[in-house]
Design a protein that fits this description.
single chain; alpha/beta; Rossmann fold; CBS-domain; 5-stranded parallel β-sheet; 4-stranded mixed β-sheet; 15 helices; elongated
């Protein structure tokens, strides 16, 4: 039978390990973070066994938050993969004991290459700690395993240190939401950070007419572009209004066929709601839902039309 009280103890033991590491954060952590921030190459993260799995996650976190990084398997490294390490790189080595043979074997070669070495280990007095430029100490961590053997609390603490290191560097670098979106083009995270300018229709797909054009000419422009609306602009390209195929259907339903030869400027929606190209696509979606519209003109400085956003564009991007 599963002992739920013991399961809760595992959570508490791992939380205690992370809390203890947090209390140890001092200038040595800051120096380690500065080394990462100042790295001109990549952060090469390595570790063996369970620490290696944590190393892979840390490398992924670095890469997704603006710090180029890769995972290097220590056993494969000494059989040729060490060629991935360059002098401008920084090796981040993970080992709770600091005595992992496969990791220690890398250090002389890494030194010859010229890369720096940063360690996350229990003690700076371990072999790994003594042969590293900088050390982030975990301290003595009591594992949550009832045998005291399976890495659990130590790997939780190691992962937390890696996250803290990557995110402290992100903050110091001034990494923006836009940069984050660049590295996350797929999935929900990337979609939430897409900008209007990345989805809007331009060129031939963004039809425009002058206010003197007839409604028939406006309809021809809409049909040619396979669009749902045409923007009405002045001679300087500034947005004056919008005319949609829905507007025409309403005229037709009212029996106003003669309106087909009337100037579109007389029947357009003047000063329509619009959005800027630098705004988030999610903002555009919220605006279109609130106003119950399917097309949204995109304007830049001084009201100049630069594109058109259609609800179908948001649908294609997975936002609807």
């Amino acid at each position: 039978m599963i002992d739920l009280d013991y399961a809760r103890q595992v959570f508490m033991r791992e939380a205690e390990a992370i809390r203890a590491v947090a209390e140890r954060v001092d200038r040595r952590f800051a120096e380690a973070a500065e080394a990462v921030l100042g790295c001109r190459g990549r952060v090469v993260v390595t570790g063996m066994g369970k620490a290696g799995i944590i190393a892979q996650k840390i490398a992924a976190t670095f890469s997704s938050t603006g710090t180029p990084a890769l995972f290097l398997h220590p056993a494969e490294a000494v059989h040729g993969d060490l060629g991935a390490v360059q002098a401008e790189d920084l090796l981040l080595a993970l080992s709770n004991s600091g005595e992992t043979e496969e990791v220690l074997r890398l250090l002389p070669a890494v030194r010859r290459i010229g890369a720096g070495v940063l360690a996350i280990t229990a003690s700076a007095q371990s072999s790994l700690g003594e042969h590293s430029d900088r050390v982030i100490e975990l301290g003595a961590v009591r594992e949550a395993c009832p045998l005291g053997l399976a890495p659990s609390a130590s790997t939780a603490a190691m992962l937390a240190v890696g996250d803290a290191l990557a995110l402290a560097v992100l903050k110091a670098r001034g990494f923006t939401r836009e940069q984050y979106a660049l590295y996350h083009p797929a999935g929900e995270l990337g979609r939430r950070l897409l900008k209007v300018g990345e989805l809007m229709r331009t060129g031939a797909a963004n039809p425009t007419v002058s206010p003197r054009a007839t409604i028939l000419e406006a309809l021809s422009a809409i049909s040619a572009a396979r669009a749902g609306a045409v923007s009405v602009t002045d001679g300087a390209g500034r947005l004056l209004g919008i005319f949609t195929d829905g507007d025409f259907r309403r005229h037709f339903a009212r029996g106003r066929l003669e309106a087909a030869t009337a100037p579109v400027g007389e029947h357009m929606t003047a000063k329509p709601v619009s959005i800027g190209p630098e705004q988030l696509a999610t903002e555009a979606l919220a605006l279109m839902r609130a106003r119950k519209i399917d097309e949204l003109p995109v304007v830049a400085a001084r009201g100049k039309l630069v594109g058109m956003l259609d609800v179908q564009d948001l649908l294609s991007a997975g936002l609807v």
